[in-house]
Amino acid sequence: MLRRWNRRKRRAPWSNASEGLSSAGTGPKFVEFSEIDGWRSQKYDMAPPPDREAVMLRVEKEIVKLAGALDEGTAEAMDPLIESWIAQWIATVETGYTDACSVVDVHHGAASQFAEEAERVLDFEQRELHRLERFRDRAQDGLVVEEARDERAR
Fold this sequence. Notes:
Blueprint: H1 34-37, H2 52-65, H3 79-153
């Protein structure tokens, strides 16, 4: 980006102080380029939203700024600008996609941890259930044996 120069002193960074000096010290102290001085770099602005009407309006405004400088041979002068907008829109979509993927990965990781913990609890509870069922079966067998003894004893 070009550096702004002080307009009050009319001193351009590319001018030479020794050129243009008169012998009496009056007159211009710096070389002036009126063709160049009228042009300054403009700040880069963001692309319009990816809406057809907004984009067409923006392109028309840019064409009006060129004041008839485009014809059939130079009509593709707007193509790099439009392509840069498209690249910015694609980058925005890709960034959003990457962010969404990272959120999905975080939730997937949390769900995987929860599932693993639930499987460990399930395994523990199943082993405990089988242990208690064995005790129940032994207790029932013991009761059946005691009932048989009691009936024999009667």
